[in-house]
Structures are given as C-alpha cells and as structure tokens.
Amino acid sequence: MPPIDYSTWDVFTDLDSDQELPPQVSKPAQAAKTTLSTSAATSTIATSTSPTPSSNNTIKAVIVRCGGDIRGRPWEATTIPSDHAVFNKSVPPVAALLDLLIVIHRLGTRDNGQFRNIENQAITHLNAETKSGLAPPQWQSGIGSVIVARKDRKSLSPEHY
Predict the structure, then answer these.
(1) Most confident of 29-43, 100-114, 145-159
(2) Mean pLDDT throughout 75-84?
C-alpha cells in the first residue's frame, strides 16, 4: 500500500474556528455560539424528517440492497404500510448507541446457487454488539436486501440513511 500523501490535506486547515474569532471574544462566548448553532442544526433536521401525511397510512423507508441486487445505488426510497413487521423489530446496538432509532427487516433474498453475493456489510456493521464489536451469527452473512425504517414511524429518506 502506498504511503498517504498528507500534503493535499491543507484544505482542512482553514476550518479552525479559533482563527475566525476576533481577539476580544472569550472562549465561553465561543462555546455559547457553538451550542446555539448545534441546536439550530438539530431543529432543522428534526423538522425535515417529520411524518408525511398520507391518505393510505404508508411510511417512507429505505431499501438497502445486498451485493447481488445492486443496480446503480445500493439504497433507494420505498413506502411501506404503517403496520409493517419492521416496526416490531428492536433497534440494532450500534444505531442505539448513536441515538439513531432505526429498525431493520430482511426481505428474504435467496442465493440462487450461482455465486450471488447476498452480503450486506452496512447492515452487519449496524448490528455489531457494542462490547465485542462482532455481529450475532444471523447478521454476519447471507443477510440479503433489507428495509430500514425509523422506529417512530416517521419518514426516512435515502439521504438521511
């Protein structure tokens, strides 16, 4: 593996917030400014993920495809009924640790015997136990494509996934 060329990383050096503050602004004032901008960003995210009203009680969710099903992007938007079985699942350990209240439901992708790749690494990593770092055996191989939805039944867009 070639060595990493850190000389191209200089574009990140101008992101230091201490350099942008005038000398008379103290560190506590800087912390208050950071807290304010963080809460504003959080409220924007919460607003953008509110449930979408629908006449037929459907929820926007995301299909995360396994290696054998990928044609284009590995995930896409879908709609599921509000009483779908995915909402009976528990939140995976890594997602719970990050306060991402999502649930995952397997779609039942089958191996057709022609070396079809039904692995889904992203979902394996979400199901890893926080103490051991390993996913339970049922989430380590042969997962196939899955549906990912928010546990609170609000809309989940592919961008937020």
Answers:
(1) 145-159
(2) 93
Helix (H) or strand (E) holding 52: none
Rounded Cα–Cα distance for residues 161 and 146 (Å): 13
Beta bridge partners of 78: 61
Q: How many residues does the chain have?
A: 161
Question: How is residue 126 written in tokens?
Answer: 């979400």
Q: Classify burial at 90, counting beta carbons within 10 Å of its beta carbon; exposed 0-12, middle 13-18, buried 19 or more.
A: exposed
- Closest CA relative to residue 101, chosen from 109, 92, 88: 92
Distances in whole angstroms, Cα of residue 17 to Cα of each of 9, 28, 112: 17, 14, 54
Closest Cα to residue 161, out of 90, 62, 37? 62
How many Cβ atoms are within 10 Å of 154's Cβ, its own excluded?
Answer: 16
As a whole number of Å, the end-to-end CA separation of the chain is: 31
Residue 80, beta-bridge partner list: 59
Taking the domains of the chain in order of start, what are their residue ranges? 58-150
Give the 3-state secondary structure of residue 21: coil
- pLDDT confidence band for 4 (50 / 70 / 90): low
What is the Cα–Cα distance from 96 to 100, expressed in whole angstroms? 6
